[in-house]
Amino acid sequence: MKKTIFLDRDGVISKYYPGDWTKKWKEFSFLPGVKDALEKLTRANYQIVIISNQAGVSKGLFGLKALRKITKRMKEELRKSGGRIKKVYYCPHQDEDNCSGRKPKVGLFKKAEKDLGYINFEQTFFVGDSEIDILAGKNIGTKTILVLTGKIKSKEETKNWQKQLDYVTTDLPSAVEIILNPPSS
Questions:
Q1: DSSP code at position 159
Q2: Residue 169 DSSP SS3
Q3: Tens of pLDDT along 52-92?
Q4: Catalytic residues
């Protein structure tokens, strides 16, 4: 059984735009160290799965075609530096659409398991940049890592969250170090 890692996209892999979305490739920007971090996970034989809410689609800010183009270019750029994304799952809906795939619900994690085969969620991580990401990870049973490169900028902002996260770190490269060399409890 291959090891799986789940990642959010905006704020973890690419720049997060507060109150906005990455609507086309020229707005997409990899965060520092991300390409090397994903290459390390790939080399360590992890299958990398992206799970991301993209409500900008249902709000009419960009279409599924634009989202597919961004995803294709992102995967190509990562492949050039040795990183491999196994699957990408997006929920294009808004909260009021009540979609089972919209984080913090776990529909996209279950779809990943259906597509990829059994995943031991307790033995994997979900790396995100918001409380919604941490809730989604906890709801499916993963360990969670919050990176401070997106919506949340300090650990202090997490003190009143519904569920406690497992780790907080500065960025994805630091999260990958935790994944590859977990601290002993």
A1: T
A2: strand
A3: 999 999 999 999 999 999 999 999 999 999 999 999 999 99
A4: 8, 10
Cβ atoms of 8 and 133 within 8 Å: the answer is: yes
Sign of CA dihedral 166, 171, 172, 178: negative
Hey, how many other C-beta atoms are within 10 angstroms of the C-beta on 25? 14
114: CB partners within 8 A, 6+ apart: none
Contact yes or no for 178/147 (Cβ under 8 A): no
Task: Read off the pTM.
Answer: 0.96
Q: What is the 3-state secondary structure (H, E, C) of 3-48?
A: EEEEECCECCCECCCCCCCCCCHHHCCECCCHHHHHHHHHHCCEEE
- Confirm if 167 and 178 have CB atoms less than 8 A apart: yes
State both tokens at 179.
Answer: 């994944």
- Domain-by-domain residue ranges, the chain? 3-180
Class of the domain covering 3-180 = alpha beta
Question: CA dihedral in degrees (150, 151, 153, 159; nearest 10)?
Answer: -140
CA distance 129 to 47: 20
The amino acid that residue 68 corresponds to is: R
CB 85 within 8 A of CB 75: yes
Q: What is the rounded distance in angstroms from the CA atom of residue 157 to the CA atom of residue 106? A: 24
